[in-house]
């Protein structure tokens, strides 16, 4: 107990010193574990999808950080943590509590963020930590594997900012085959110290296509070895009615070209860009925003391309594409060449109208906010 109290005191000190910007947040104590309101999915669904709500209370019933802490609390034997960043207090406390009840916790992280409070607290508790030790590439994943049975992944870094101030999604998948995919990728990094590609040319992610128990088809890919950008372009090329996206970073030229081709065929394209990233000369924002007069549909009508900069004063951190209200691309994978060819990333492609409906709701909210912010005050 003295060791636990000392570590909790250290955590509080490190968080107070190392939190990124903004006022301190009033966070609930861990207690017996947070109660999490069910998502819109069926209670028996193997999928739970959560969205951050910047500006709302950190202990709100739909908080992804609380949801993740709850899944951590339920782990019985092992938790493998793959964290680009880790400074969120509730998540770190839950992991520390897991260590103290005998759960085997291991951590892979990005070298640039070894100093963060959560990493230091877990190291002090004896958790083994492996960092990627690379220049010019990132270990950009944000996932956890629980008991080799289920997975948490998404765009949300395990930080105060990403959980409470930025727009993000988190996904919990209760499926042993998906868990085996993430456990395989984790083992390559943690045990073999292999970042980026596969350890050998013969190594593969075991289950790239999985049908969940509710019938949802999921494709599961990792960069750099699974050609994630090619998979996404293939999906975009098949769009028949609509493409909607939320993009923190969007610079991949082939994805832009695919969207333009589909727009010429009459597909409606709409998106929200993170404004801090859209200023780059490589950003797809200006390429999609400024539609050349010659780029009309094959029937001669104007292409329907509607893109805006996000309205969040912090970051719109999603990496999401919704196609024909049926297919969803989500995960840590930014729509960039570095994500595809340099970084460690993961992506899920869902075939599900229910999953698409949940992401569509998030898209419509952020799109409307962005559109309103772009309008002159007198026109609102």
Commentary on this structure:
The protein is globular, with a radius of gyration of 21 Å. 33% of the residues lie in helices and 21% in strands. It has helices at residues 2-18, 64-74, 89-100, 117-124, 160-164, 176-190, 228-237, 253-264, 275-278, 284-289, 337-341, 353-374; strands at residues 47-51, 78-83, 104-109, 129-131, 142-146, 150-154, 169-174, 209-211, 217-223, 242-247, 268-273, 305-309, 319-323, 327-331, 345-351. The longest helix has 22 residues, at 353-374. The chain has an eight-stranded mixed beta sheet with strand order 8-9-15-14-13-10-11-12, with helices on both faces. The chain has a seven-stranded mixed beta sheet with strand order 1-7-6-5-2-3-4, with helices on both faces. Helix 4 links the parallel strand 3 and strand 4. Helix 2 runs parallel beside helix 3 and helix 3 packs parallel to helix 4 (117-124). It is built from twelve helices and 15 strands. Residues 1-40 have low confidence and may be disordered.
What is the third-level CATH name, the topology of the largest domain?
Endonuclease, Chain A
* H/I helix tally: 12
Shape label: globular
CATH C-level category of the largest domain = Alpha Beta
Spatial extent as radius of gyration: 21 Å
Q: Report strand %.
A: 15-25%
Order of helical and strand elements: HEHEHEHEEEHEHEEHEHEHHEEEHEH
